[in-house]
User: Fold this.
Amino acid sequence: MKVNSTSGPDFDPVTTKKIEDYISGNMNADDIEELWAFFILNPEWYTYFETYLTMISLSRQP
Assistant:
């Protein structure tokens, strides 16, 4: 599921795509490690990631 968003922290379509790829299981181990390192250095993007997961979870509830 894609969330149509243009308001992430300093919106960056590349980072948003990486998050979508991670959630969809479309990343290799190196890319996953790079994404988590990015989250450590950019906690606002980790918050965005958590919010994204919450929105997906809520959209799947009956």
Notes: Residues 3 and 52 are 8 Å apart (CA to CA).
